[in-house]
Specification:
The protein has 193 residues and is mainly α. It has one domain. It is built from 9 helices and no strands.
Amino acid sequence: MIVTYSDFAEINRYRMMSTFGNGTIRRFKDDVSDMKNFAARDFEDVLQLSMPAFEGLVSDKQQDKIIQNLLFDLLMFHAHAKLRMHTDNTLKSFRLATRALGQSLRQFSNKTCTFYSDTKELPKEKAARLRKSATKASNTSQSQSVSKSSQVQGKKFSMKTYKTHALSHYPDHAEEFGTYDSVSTRDVSCFCI
């Protein structure tokens, strides 16, 4: 397992990062992994500083290289998705970045995730799961109550989610409908009221 409570200070490297510019990248809170009270800029800052924060975190050099390549490809994809104007060249570059991200995700899933197969859910995830099962048990009209395990459950990375599937459609969406800053769900939501 990668994370233990004694290693918490080592993992929480974001706090040690220096600020950049006048409010460009601000000082992080004590516990970035908590992700409480984050503004949108904080999520982007976490992504932008992920490579130096994760560098050398795992002892195996090959796994570290896979993680660094994945983070780089995520950053490249994010940079392309955030562009406010696309040309034929940027769309071509966006497609190449998307292909590289897919390859990095598959390599991460096939090699790194199998290397660290004993990953577990976080304590707050366990508490949320137990609360949800308790609420579900109290709301059911059945007399049988299903006893959920109070043990920490395993947590595995899955490539079989809609989010990972939809990544491949981003360049086509940008070409057909325009950049993502021009698309809003606000206009549609007013018709649903």
